[in-house]
Amino acid sequence: MSTSENWIDRGLTHVTKTYGRYPLVAASGEGCWLTDIDGKRYLDFLAGVAVNSLGHCHPKVVAALQEQAGKLLHCSNYYHIPQQIELAEIICEHSFGDRVFFCNSGAEANEAAIKLARKYSADKFGGDRFEIITALDSFHGRTLATISATGQTAIQAGFTPLIPGFKYAPFGDIQALKDAITPQTCAIMMEPIQGEGGVNVPPAGYLQAVRELCDQHELLLIFDEIQVGLGRTGKLFAYQHDAIEPDVMTLAKALAGGPPIGAMVAKEEYAAALAPGTHGSTFGGNPLMAAAGVATMQTILTDGIIENCVAMGSYLLEQLQQLQSKYSFISQIRGRGLILGMELTIAGGDIVKTALERGLLINCTAGKVLRFVPPLIVTTAEIDQMITILDGIFQEL
User: Fold this and answer.
1) Are 373 and 338 in contact (CB under 8 A)?
2) Which of 122, 200, 256, 273 is deepest in the core (most CB within 10 A)?
3) Does any domain span residue 19?
4) Which residue out of 96, 139, 237, 372 is catalytically annotated?
């Protein structure tokens, strides 16, 4: 029988070392629990980095995949795909959007948004209007264009020259954003809440001011909701908290409950810029992934998932704040819904390792921010168990 050590050795021999992997070999999962190959269970408050929003192997998603797998796995986008059409209809019905482009990942969705912004602006204003302003500490993907859009030098290191045409402004600083706009600017692109940057929530009124700025200068407003969309913040889309609409939105992660899929959502006026031949994806929106997406979206919309996120998000926030009152090295708790960050005055990496040893999966971003993004189906009992483990670790510090 293969053990975790055997699998780890084989992986270290043949798989690229692009991840600092922990010594866990995943075998199965159910709900908020992940089980490794040796049979140890872990309470999963990382959820595949906000991907498994319905928990591991949600029965409706599994059933949709099984049924579709017996009919048609893949079909070229030269033809009409019913499952893709249905998923696009659901997204548009419940958002500002009129059209959806499907791809395979968040980075690809952001690539599509970048291309759309430049193509629309070139068609309407000419080719000199191509710059996109993003935020410092943002994260938009790992392709060459999306690391160029990402406002973190650590992500960009070693990959210069970057793609030209990106500028950065501090997140939450509207004056700095105004000052960054030039005659060459075509769009502003940002996450409504920065996930990888440290669960950074903008000040009240900031996103409305960004919308007004885009209207004033005829700029496209692109919201990257790859991590915070699809119920994660307590609304279906994060922009809905601020009573505004972007012109373009990108989605991925939780869209199919686990299987890989990405989407760019746009209003008709802007989507029209991507005519046949201007963009595409071989696998984007294929029958299998789209079927999982339909099942996931229907479950989120009809099974009380968002309501549970609101209730459990409030409960988790209260429990984390109680820990903050006990330990001086916890400086701030922030976030919304079930994307919450605990900023520490000490490094968080060793806490994550100890939590893993004790059967809890969390992660640390921005060096000192513990990030909690459990499945949206999490219960109070599971939150209590997580808090107990974390409290025990903190006591030893």
Assistant:
1) yes
2) 256
3) no
4) 139
